[in-house]
Specification:
Strand order of the largest sheet: 5-9-8-6-10
Oligomer: single chain
Radius of gyration: 16 Å
Bound molecules: adenine
Number of strands: 10
CATH class: Alpha Beta
CATH architecture: 3-Layer(aba) Sandwich
Number of domains: 1
CATH topology: Rossmann fold
Helix content: 25-40%
Structural class: alpha/beta
Order of helices and strands: EHEEEHEEEHEHEHEH
Shape: globular
């Protein structure tokens, strides 16, 4: 099987500028996900819109690794800011990821994944460093650190503060930690690259629809600049 880079976005806007840029494009549908195989800027890739949330994301990552031969997965998309200085259109590059809604606290600390025994799942440091450099080269403000994922759209100041303070996380979204865990368990490299669309507060329901499309497109530019270093 040909070695490929997998690129996962949860929503249409997160893959909208990548799929039309594919050459030698072929499609395969598995379940409700369409896998777009082809070349992006000369690299062999498989691109898919996983759907929102951790289960969709983990399934798509596993399929890319096992069925399509992906040896590295890049998760592209938008995120809510947890760190107070972050603004829409700033980039957050994950150094590691946590599932903020994984809770077996009678037995283990918040976020600790049973069977793995870790709260934070690391990503590939080389790809992460290259993504941070690529975002800076695009003129974006960049923070590198923990990203928190959960099956919740965060739009509440108290919940936001709890996730930030419990895990030391800079941004929240709904897929990255699941992709990182799938990659960790199946032996693929992983990167989670996100651009801020909202502040995960009481205004997130208004900010998200106004900023998401532009933030997602900006983020896809970072991803394309990272491909040569993977
Ligand atoms: N993705 C973008 N903004 C988000 C938020 N506020 N919560 C969860 N996922 C997000």
């Amino acid at each position: 099987m040909k070695e490929r880079i997998g690129i996962i976005g949860a929503m249409e806007s997160e893959v909208a500028t990548l799929i039309p840029a594919l050459t030698e494009h072929a499609e395969q549908k598995i379940g409700i996900v369409v896998y777009h195989v082809g070349k992006l800027d000369g690299r062999d890739v498989v691109v898919a819109r996983s759907g929102v949330g951790k289960v969709n994301a983990a399934l798509t990552a596993a399929e890319m690794i096992r069925t399509f031969g992906a040896t590295a997965i890049v998760n592209t998309g938008v995120a809510g800011a947890l760190e107070e200085t972050l603004n829409p259109e700033d980039a957050v590059i994950a150094t590691d990821l946590v599932q903020h809604d994984y809770d077996t606290t009678p037995f283990d600390p918040p976020g600790c994944v049973s069977g793995i025994g870790q709260v934070k799942i690391p990503v590939d440091p080389v790809i992460a460093a290259s993504a941070a450099a690529a975002a800076r080269a695009l003129g974006m403000r960049v923070l590198e650190g923990t990203v928190a994922s959960g099956d919740q759209f965060i739009s509440d100041g108290k919940k936001k503060a709890w996730i930030r303070d419990t895990f030391g996380a800079f941004a929240c979204e709904m897929e990255g930690a699941a992709i990182a865990q799938a990659c960790y368990l199946l032996g693929a490299r992983c990167a989670v690259i996100r651009t801020i669309s909202d502040r995960a507060d009481g205004k997130a329901d208004v900010d998200f629809p106004s900023f998401a499309a532009r933030a997602a497109a900006l983020n896809a530019q970072i991803v394309r600049r990272v491909l040569p270093s993977i």
